[in-house]
């Protein structure tokens, strides 16, 4: 009798279980829930707004510190290659000195705030990466930063002096050189920054090889077209003169050859 009652109770409970709707897993429920998707999008937008706000504040603080504390020593350091050749640096407009100080302060403010900006960007994209991808990204970014700084230092120490000497000699018997401060600063920034970007070429080749867009054989076979493209890019990035284009183009060609070596290394590592 008890056995029959227990069997009837079990059957009844089984029927009730069948009648109850089975709730989907939380991940599937959130995936099909538009409200959850809206919430996730809202969270991403709020995180992106935080990144932008903190980055802008960091640049503003860096700009203020540079403008009020360090802009004059910076300008002396920037104009040192010209003053070492006994060339007078002048300004030809009433506001030129102030606008030049503002321009230098903005650029150096961005440089000073760069670690904060990178940290904010990293905190935004980090949750979307696996741990292995996070390690690879950190190494790749550190290497890119080193190459960028190395390119700027290389340009300032060696290439810039060669370019200045060439321009000074070319106008030696034509007129007395008195350089405008604003035009000289614009020339300097337009000369240094492309070298920093160009020195990151091996990193770009590494990334494209890693995702399968390029191979060592393809890079080697396209060498003559790349060399032509490098000088076109050098003509766009540098001031409009042949010497600047050559001084940027030759290191880029050498870096392209380094990129081919890096691509071969990546493929050999994948095969191994």
Describe the structure.
The protein is mainly α and 272 residues long. It folds into two domains: 39-128, no CATH class; 132-176 and 185-272, no CATH class. It is 82% helix and 2% strand. It is built from eleven helices and two strands, in the order H-H-H-H-E-H-H-E-H-H-H-H-H. The chain has a two-stranded parallel ribbon. The radius of gyration is 30 Å and the shape is flat. The protein starts with a helix and ends with a helix.
Topology:
Blueprint: H1 2-19, H2 26-32, H3 34-78, H4 80-83, E1 88-90, H5 96-125, H6 131-170, E2 178-180, H7 181-198, H8 201-210, H9 216-221, H10 223-237, H11 242-271
Parallel strand pairs: 1-2
Helix pairs in contact: 3-5, 6-7, 7-11, 8-11, 10-11
Q: What is the helix tally?
A: 11
- N-to-C series of helices and strands: HHHHEHHEHHHHH
* Beginning-to-end CA distance, first to last residue: 72 Å
**Category from helices, strands and their pairing:** mainly alpha
Shape: flat
Q: What's the number of structural domains?
A: 2
Short description:
By secondary structure, the protein is mainly alpha-helical.
Give a quick set of tags describing it.
two-stranded parallel ribbon; mainly alpha; flat; single chain; 82% helix
């Amino acid at each position: 009798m008890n056995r029959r009652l227990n069997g009837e109770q079990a059957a009844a409970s089984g029927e009730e279980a069948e009648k109850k709707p089975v709730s989907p897993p939380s991940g599937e429920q959130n995936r099909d829930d538009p409200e959850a998707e809206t919430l996730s999008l809202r969270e991403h937008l709020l995180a992106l707004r935080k990144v932008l706000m903190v980055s802008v504040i960091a640049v503003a603080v860096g700009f203020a510190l540079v403008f009020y504390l360090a802009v004059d020593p910076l300008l002396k350091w920037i104009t040192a290659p010209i003053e070492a050749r006994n060339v007078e640096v002048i300004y030809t407009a009433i506001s030129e000195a102030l606008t030049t100080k503002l321009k230098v302060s903005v650029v150096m403010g961005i440089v000073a705030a760069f670690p904060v900006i990178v940290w904010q960007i990293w905190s935004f994209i980090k949750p979307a990466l696996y741990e292995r991808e996070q390690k690879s990204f950190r190494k790749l970014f550190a290497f890119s930063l080193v190459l960028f700084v190395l390119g700027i230092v290389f340009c300032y120490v060696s290439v810039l002096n060669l370019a200045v000497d060439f321009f000074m000699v070319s106008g030696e018997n034509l007129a007395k050189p008195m350089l405008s401060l604003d035009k000289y600063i614009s020339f300097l920034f337009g000369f240094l920054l492309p070298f920093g970007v160009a020195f990151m070429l091996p990193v770009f080749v590494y990334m494209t090889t890693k995702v399968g867009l390029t191979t060592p054989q393809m890079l080697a076979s396209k060498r003559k077209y790349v060399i032509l493209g490098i000088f076109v890019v050098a003509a766009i990035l540098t001031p409009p003169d042949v010497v600047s284009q050559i001084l940027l183009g030759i290191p880029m060609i050498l870096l392209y050859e380094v990129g081919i070596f890096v691509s071969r290394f990546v493929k050999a590592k994948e095969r191994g």
